[in-house]
Amino acid sequence: MRDRLTRLKTATLTGLLVVNLSACTKITGSAFPDLTSNPAVTGVDVEKIAALESRMRQFVVEGDSMGIATLLVRDGKVASYTQAGVRDLLNGEPITQDSMYRIYSMSKPITGVAMMILHEQGAFSLDDPVSKFIPEFENLKVVKSYDLEGNVELEPLQRQPTIRELMSHTAGFGYGISGADPSNMQFRKKAVLASPDLQSLVDTVATIPLMHQPGTAWAYSVSVDLQGAIVERISGMSLGDFFQSKIFKPLGMVDTAFYVPAEKAERLADVFGYHPVTKNFQALPFADPAFNILGDISYRKETRGMESGGGGLVSTMADYARFCQMMLNGGQLDGVRILSKKSIDLMAKNVLTDSQTIDSTGNLNGTTSQRVGFGLNFGIIMGEASEISGYGDGSYFWGGAASTWFWIDPKNDLFFIGMVQQFPKPPPAVNPDFRKTSQQFVYDTLTD
Asked: Which residue has the higher pLDDT, 260 or 16?
């Protein structure tokens, strides 16, 4: 135990010493973003940028995270990049600019872009029924009522859920990551998220009743994996091949994929989980296999199941920055257009009613707000929520299960990305709020 603690302390200190040093491993590929230097960026306070970076590193110093990297881009320029802590705990290897991260639900916006590419091609209307492309769903049932004794009453669909509802988590599907309702319990019992391929996922979901009638409520769901199945059926390509040819290659996202090849494996950061017995964070997988409930974390092709558009990608800071800048630019980057500005605006427009609220931000901490909306595969910060938080009205965002997060703020022409690899411990309220803390410091840096 003493040796392990010594390695842990040494590794952490090693990681801290390399923060923002030019000797760090440099990213390769397209020029943007240049993480090696911070050029003069108008509209930000240099001293407050330093305070932002110090606070992000403090998460490691105080033991809230074993590793972190954050990026602030404003007006198309890197205003701040910082990194601290370790990528590989056992060997004491630090976080580097080219470290790879499991972005989990930050995959969802990318799948949304894939859907909108097909939408622009006229492949579907947002008001088309999902069953037009997934006929297995024509006879779905809906949970009408249930009790604690396990009695469940089902009812027929009043109408088919639409593609728009599928992209806004209002179609009624469950997910299985939480919830004691019959739908989510069936998702867990039938191990939907462990499906070997998207056809198997569709077949299983077709046997599970919806949580509610389509369009009546917001519930975080398997809908983005179903979008992946639709992309495959319309395009005739695997989801990974579609992403590569239509999004990753055009944008120069050279390290974003569903799998990590052997030659890149050492760049994949450790992911940490809270051990229910020892009551501390440990690098996964745990020594006791009985507690490894999160599935494969190596992302080797031979050990992965389906290509999950809802949470299956790995990426780097530079790659995800190129995706965010493309969105902020209205659908294009470096002269390459992925989507029209009209489609970007549509994705970032709230589609929820005043009575519908969201209870997630993509992380596992959960949230409930009557002032946060949802568009097409993005959460939307609007109105009172932006006034209270400081986010620009109409900012859009999401996060990932291992505590990654990002937001895009068109009003202030900025985006921010945070990369951490740590599943929160229960209860959610005891975990550090990376997003809120970074938001407070980011908007304090702005001078115009």
From this structure: 260
- Name the DSSP class of 246: I
**8 Å CB contact between 406 and 363:** no
Measure CA 106 to chain center.
2
> Whose CA is closest to 377, among 332, 327, 420?
327
Count of structural domains, the chain:
2
Does residue 7 sit within a domain?
Answer: no
pTM of the model: 0.93
**CATH number for the domain including 219?**
3.40.710.10
pLDDT tens-digit series, residues 360-416: 777 645 444 556 899 999 999 988 777 777 899 999 999 999 999 999 999 999 999
Distance CA 388, CA 405 (A): 20
Q: Bridge partners of 81?
A: 71
Q: Which domain holds residue 167?
A: 113-238
Q: pLDDT digits over 38-67, tens only? A: 667 889 999 999 999 999 999 999 999 999
Report if residue 19 sits inside a domain: no
Judgement on whether residues 354 and 284 belong to the same structural domain of the protein: yes
**What are the start-end ranges of the E strands in 188-322?**
272-274, 281-283, 314-316
Cα 70 to Cα 398: distance, rounded to the nearest angstrom? 15
User: DSSP 3-state assignment of 251?
Assistant: helix
Distance CA 129, CA 107 (A): 24
Closest CA to 91 of 17, 4, 177, 16: 4
Question: Can you say how many angstroms the Cα of residue 74 is from the centroid of all Cα atoms in its chain?
Answer: 21
> Is there a single domain that holds both residue 269 and residue 383?
yes
